[in-house]
């Protein structure tokens, strides 16, 4: 009987040992499954962070490209505006030059007519007067030419300063 009791006792111990071993295995498998699940979550989290970083980089690049595009548009607008202003100034200069030429022509015509009327009376004095008028006209033309050259030089200097200012502003914008 004692042998049967020992066998029964050993069988119960083996069953308890097997049950404990099975529980340990189940516990280890649960821990492994949890560890795998946690590792998958971490991996997915890293992938999401990378996607978020890529999206942030793309957004930053898009904004940068947009700023550069807008800066180019503004620079072109300023350039076009400056060209229109230069053209307007040229047209004003041409009108002023044409008007001055008309005035000079009218003055010359009047002087000539006056000279014709005076010629019958005082031909010698009129000859001297024509010489003075011609000298005055030449001096006026010389002054007009010099003034025009000075105006063109001043305009060129202003345009150069404006251009350099625009370049400086563009560099500041790009920086």
Account of the 3D structure:
The protein is mainly alpha-helical and 175 residues long. It has one domain (2-174). It is 98% helix and 0% strand. The two termini are 99 Å apart.
Layout of helices and strands, plus pairs?
Elements: H1 2-121, H2 123-174
Keywords:
175 residues; 2 helices; 98% helix
Concise summary:
Helices cover 98% and strands 0% of the residues. The protein is mainly alpha-helical and 175 residues long. It has one domain.
Number of strands: 0
Helix segment count?
A: 2
| Major sheet characteristics | none
- The radius of gyration is 50 Å
Contiguous uncertain segments of 5+ residues: none
Compressed to H and E, one letter per element, the order equals HH
Helix-and-strand structural type: mainly alpha
Q: Quick one: overall form?
A: rod-shaped
Mean pLDDT: 89
N-to-C terminal Cα separation, in Å?
99 Å
Tally the structural domains.
1
Strand content: under 5%
Helix content: over 70%
